[in-house]
Write a structure and sequence with these properties.
single chain; 71 residues; mainly alpha; binds heme C
């Protein structure tokens, strides 16, 4: 149904799963340390073009989510 496709992501995890799979498979960040995560997301936006599909606000939510899962 249409509304399901346009429904905005409701949780940080969902945001991560949707935004970070536009260009590649779901990235596995388990091999990165918590302090590296912000830089990775920044690189995606600044160098790999992810700023087209991920706003700054969304990036901040994703970073927080991923940092929470990281070691
Ligand atoms: C606009 C496209 C795009 C989006 C959106 C995107 N990426 Fe990427 N990502 C890339 C490209 C291009 C590469 C480089 C692919 C390669 O190294 O073969 C990459 C590689 C990666 C890698 C591998 C880096 C490494 O050192 O092995 C990780 C981790 C990653 N992305 C995480 C993310 C995360 C997290 C998000 C969401 C915040 C995201 N990506 C969103 C384009 C994107």
């Amino acid at each position: 149904m249409i509304w399901q496709r346009v429904r905005p992501p409701r949780t940080p995890e969902e945001l991560f799963r949707r935004r970070c799979t536009r260009c590649h498979g779901l990235p596995d960040l388990s091999r990165f340390a918590r302090r590296q995560i912000e830089g990775i997301v920044r690189t995606m936006r600044e160098r790999n073009g992810a700023d087209e599909v991920i706003t700054e606000e969304e990036a901040a939510v994703i970073v927080k989510y991923l940092e929470g899962k990281a070691k």
